[in-house]
Amino acid sequence: MVGYQRNDSLTHSQKFAVGCFTGIITRLITQPVDIIKLRTQLQKRKHIKHLSMFQMSRKILEEEGFKAFFHGHYIGQVHSILSVSTQFFIYELVSKQVVNSGINEKHMPAMLFFSGIIAGCCSGAVALPLEVIRVRQMIAKEQYKGILNGAKAVYKAGGILAFYEGLSASLIQYGPSVGLSFSVFRFMQPLLLKKLGQRRDRDDALNTDYKPSHVVVASMIAGSTAGFVSKTATYPLDLVKRRLQIGTHKEDDRFTTSVTSRHLIRCTSFLTCIRNIIRKEGFSGLYQGWLVTVLKSQLTSIVAFTTYECACYVVREFNKPVR
Known about the structure:
It is a multi-pass membrane protein. The radius of gyration is 21 Å and the shape is globular. It has helices spanning 12-42, 45-48, 53-64, 73-99, 108-139, 147-158, 167-196, 212-245, 270-281, 290-319. The chain is mainly alpha-helical.
């Protein structure tokens, strides 16, 4: 189970390393879906009303080739390692304080939810500058090519503050999203494990009590549910965040821009962005791109939670003394 557990054999450094490994695997698997999600969220409706997720994929493939699905992947890896490892590590540290505080058991779920919010806010703030560069690389790779060149292009477009475009939306969205994700996972995984099989050793409360296959299945189902619930609940904020992150982006005629990266909607103010979406696109506009985003969130949660749980399982097995 994610979060602090008493009598856990893993050290803080081992958990941090597991978080970094989880970030690498998660980005590698989810990168293509992230490209499709981003293009869908940022397009004006009149340009995408006939493009389904699969049609968008085909158009990107036809126009830009398979490599387009990995635009911004290198910086995406750095961002993912930083973001995912921070999430899990901060959650472990804060949940440790909560568990050891002697708080009433009935208040524990709420306090662990707030632990997730803290982890999400820390992760969002730390990784935001890289995320801004990555988002722009995913829509205009040549213009923002490379980490250093991308950073220069972002700075040239809007100064140092351009790296923190969408900060308010990022914190408001990412905190509750991570809090919900961890809370739903912590609630569902133990229930699923109990349904799947008996513990091998009833005196131990960690995942090593269960068969590895049970840990994998329970983590995948709980992760999928966590991704769906957390992203659906906070989706409008995710949409606003993306539009804020390209607020100072300007198309450069020196670089070729694909059809799916044109006619983008930009915002420079959080509240103004929400008002404009509702006024111009209706309430349903707040959920533009919801399907592909939720599918991506479910995939991300499945990969992240399952990888983290399995990696922790393996490390705990290695930590066991040889008999």
